Amino acid sequence: MNVIVEYILRISNYERFIILAELSIIGFVVYAVLNFLEGTRGERLFRGMIFILVFGSLTLNLVVEKFGMDRIAFLYNGFLIAVLIVSVIAFQPEIRRGLIRIGQARIFTTSFRSHPTRSVDEIITAVSHMAATRTGALIVIEQRVGLGELIEAGIRLDAEVTNEMIKTIFYPGTPLHDMAMIIRDDRIVAARVQLPLAESGSSAAGQLGSRHRAAIGLTSSSDALVIVVSEENGIISIAQDGRLTRNVSEDQLRRRLNAALAGSGEPDQAARPPKTEKKPDGSDAGQKKE
What DSSP state is assigned to residue 266? Predict the structure, then answer.
C-alpha cells in the first residue's frame, strides 16, 4: 500500500498541465482506435492488449520497485516485444484498412457536384421499384476514397444515372444483375463488381446475407455509401462507416444520397447511421449466392 501511495505522490510532483495533456492525447488515441475497430474481432483483441500493457506494466513497476525483481521485469519487456509482433500479424486486416484510407483519400482535392438532385431522384425511383418487386440490388456511391481497383475488376460502364438503367442492370437474369454497381459523381462507372465481404465472425456482419456483408465490408475500408435492396423481403438498407441501417425510409434515403452526391462525404447529424442492428436477413441472396 505504501508503494502505491509513494507512486501517486511522485506523480503529483509533475507539471499538472503536462500530465493532463498526455492523458488527453492517450485517451483520444485509444478512443479513435476503438471507434475504428468497432464491430470487428480486432476490437476485443485491442481491449485485451490495453489491459496487458496498462495494468500489467503498472503492477509490474510497483512489484519490481518494492521487491527488486529485475529478472521478472526483463522477461516482461521481452514479452511485450512478442506481443507487438503478434499484434502486427493479428491486426493485419485493420492495419491494411487504415493504410488504404490514408493512401487513397483525396485529401487535396475537392469534389463539387452542383446538381445532385436529378441523380438522387433517379436512384430513389429505381430503389423504390426494386424494393416493391423484391429485386435484389447493391448500389455503391463512391466518395473521396477511390474504388479504382474494384471498378477495373468489374464491367466498365459510362452511363447516365437513370432509374431505367439501374432497374435494367439489376433485373434478374441479365448479365450484369449479379454483384454491385458503382456510381461516381453522376455516372454509372461499373457493374458486376465484386465487393469484399465483412468478416463473418464480426458483430457487424452477424447473420446477414452476403449482400449486406459486402456493403459492410466495403464501407469498413472506405468512405463509400452503399444501398442494399433485399430480394428476400424488399427491405432497403444503407451502409456507411462499417455500420448498417436497416429499413430506411425514402426521406432518410434522400438525405443520405444528397449528402453523398453533393460531395460532402458526411451525412448530416439527423441522418447519421446508428450502430448496426443485429438482425438476420434470412436467406437473402448475396453478390453470388453462397
Answer: S
Pairing label, strands 187-193, 236-240: unpaired
Other residues' Cβ atoms within 10 Å of the Cβ of residue 255: 17
In the chain, the percentage of residues whose pLDDT exceeds 90 is: 26
> How many CB atoms within 10 Å of residue 96?
11
Provide the residue range defining the domain that includes 78.
Answer: 2-90
Listed residue (181, 237, 183) closest to 209, CA to CA: 237
How far, in Å, CA of 116 to CA of 121, rounded? 9
- For residue 174, what are the contacts with CB-CB under 8 A and spacing of at least 6? 168
250, 261 Cβ separation under 8 angstroms? no
Q: Which residue has the higher pLDDT, 282 or 152?
A: 152
CA distance from start to end of the chain: 60
The answer to whether the CB of 130 falls within 8 A of the CB of 137 is: yes
Q: What is the dihedral of CA 60, 64, 65, 70, to 10 degrees?
A: -140
Position 281 pLDDT exceeds 90: no
Per-residue pLDDT tens over the stretch 228-269: 999 889 999 999 888 899 999 999 999 998 888 765 444 444
Domain of 258, CATH number, reads 3.40.1700.10
Same domain for 125 and 263?
yes
pLDDT at position 200 over 60: no
Contact 260, 225 (CB under 8 A): yes
45 and 123 fall within a common domain? no
Distance of CA 79 to the CA centre of its chain: 32
Beta-strand ranges (E) seen in 55-214 are 137-141, 155-160, 180-184, 187-193
Residue pair 137/170 in contact (Cβ under 8 Å)? The answer is yes
Across the range 25-35, mean pLDDT stands at: 79
pTM, two decimals, is: 0.59
Contact 96, 51 (CB under 8 A): no
